[in-house]
Amino acid sequence: SHDATAQPCNPDLAEMVYGVGKMDYRQTALTFYKEATAAGDKIFVSKGEQATYNDAKLACTNAGGQLASPQNAEENKAVLDFCKMYKVFPYLGINDLLIEGSFRYPNGEMLSYSNWSDKEPNNDQGVEDCVEMYDNGKWNDKNCNEKRLIICEF
Ligand code: GMH
Ligand code: CA
């Protein structure tokens, strides 16, 4: 039986949840990730792996979810917890690959919440269409070809 007070950043639990497959991940994750779901319906999961945006996106969609795309301060904090635990900046699902300068969720909808770092997004060198989260929870637009922490939401 699980520990109901388990934090969402326990890597062993993350491994279990991430590996259970499309059919059962949601109930299993809900069982283990009380803290992360306190903000609402979302569950955030990471195995601590790093990948480019495209590979990170695939890892999440193949698992039946999508890259973490926080839509309020509580969800942003849940993502930040993983960032701090693994000491790696994550990629968010948010990007402006479709229309330069128009950052959107993976489903193409406009942002309802943002937490940009000062002077961001700046599209530095004209090649920053993805978004990373700093270890203060603030967002920076970034080249999609870096390797960043994979955090999925379900
Ligand atoms: C430039 C400067 C920095 C900023 C970075 C960052 C890269 O190098 O504007 O101040 O931190 O860009 O936006 O993604
Ligand atoms: Ca930037």
Task: Please describe what this structure looks like.
This protein has 5 helices and 8 strands; from the N terminus they run αααββαβαβββββ. The longest helix has 14 residues. The N terminus is likely disordered.
Short synopsis of the structure:
The chain is of the alpha+beta class and 154 residues long. Helices cover 29% and strands 15% of the residues. The two termini are 22 Å apart.
Give me some keywords for this one.
single chain, 154 residues, alpha+beta, three-stranded antiparallel sheet, 5 helices, globular, disordered N terminus, binds L-glycero-alpha-D-manno-heptopyranose, binds calcium ion
Topology record:
Layout: H1 11-18, H2 25-32, H3 34-37, E1 44-45, E2 50-51, H4 53-62, E3 66-67, H5 73-86, E4 91-95, E5 130-133, E6 139-142, E7 148-149, E8 152-153
Antiparallel strand pairs: 1-8, 2-7, 3-8, 4-5, 5-6
Helix pairs in contact: 1-2
Bound molecules: L-glycero-alpha-D-manno-heptopyranose and calcium ion (CA).
L-glycero-alpha-D-manno-heptopyranose binds at residues 120, 122, 124, 128, 140, 142.
Bound molecules: L-glycero-alpha-D-manno-heptopyranose, calcium ion
For the residues shown, what is the average pLDDT?
Answer: 82
Helix count? 5
Helix/strand order: HHHEEHEHEEEEE
The helix content is: 25-40%
Give me the side-by-side strand order of the main sheet: 1-8-3
Multimer state: single chain
Radius of gyration: 15 Å
Number of strands: 8
Poorly predicted tracts of residues: 1-14, 19-23, 33-39
Percent strand equals 5-15%
What class do helices, strands and sheet pairing give? alpha+beta
